[in-house]
């Protein structure tokens, strides 16, 4: 059964979609069969892998119409990376799901038949704590939180961890924290260094060692419909996401070796 990881942060502009896209690409290029699920109505993750939703099907149809995910998952330019794409039609999904039965479980049910095909499933969540995010958290085994190295990012983190706790209590007792990854880091900025120190002091080993730097290539690559690992494989951004993928895989491998592996994945 594939490991499902929700990439979530209700604050926009923190590198959430950039992390989902490029981590998925790095995992696939490392030989891991990977599925990227775009659950954000902005559909930026779909754009980032060159696969905007079309008449062939989208995640909207899985959520609202109950269409099997196997019918709408599509390949990307990377052999082992597939995508369940989105369009802006997803904006209406939350409204349409309000009166639906099992509304919090739609994504979980839709992915149930395909999880076994992938080693890792990454869900790019919308930048809000809405019903789409709840669907992602209900489906996920763990939550990976990209955290921009700025003061306001710390304020939003508390709300997200509260939501994770509520979902764990009411819908999904097994939901855990995969970890926090620091993004948009500029070591020349004293505030960025201070935020990093505070986060590591508070969360300890639950913060990934890999830090994602500010890098212009990361900003440019989506406009070309490519992850940065294909757009500029030698860039600092590409190197950082390869390192993050290796760290994540090592973390997952240690967890399968025994329940006491380094205390990783404990809930917030």
Mean pLDDT: 90
Count up the helices: 11
User: Could you spell the SSE succession in H and E letters?
Assistant: EHEHHEEHHEHEHEHHHH
- The H-level CATH homologous superfamily, spelled out, is P-loop containing nucleotide triphosphate hydrolases
Query: Gap between N and C termini, in Å?
Result: 24 Å
Description:
There is one protein chain. With 268 residues, the protein is an alpha/beta fold. The chain has one domain (3-257): 3-Layer(aba) Sandwich (Rossmann fold). The chain is built from eleven helices and seven strands. It has helices spanning 16-29, 44-48, 59-64, 93-97, 106-111, 131-139, 151-170, 190-203, 216-220, 228-231, 236-257; strands at residues 3-7, 34-38, 74-75, 81-84, 120-124, 142-148, 176-183. Helix 1 (16-29) packs across helix 11 (236-257). Mean pLDDT is 90; it is low at 260-268.
How do the helices and strands line up, and which of them pair or pack?
Layout lengths: L2 E5 L8 H14 L4 E5 L5 H5 L10 H6 L9 E2 L5 E4 L8 H5 L8 H6 L8 E5 L6 H9 L2 E7 L2 H20 L5 E8 L6 H14 L12 H5 L7 H4 L4 H22 L11
Parallel strand pairs: 1-5, 1-6, 2-4, 2-5, 6-7
Antiparallel strand pairs: 3-4
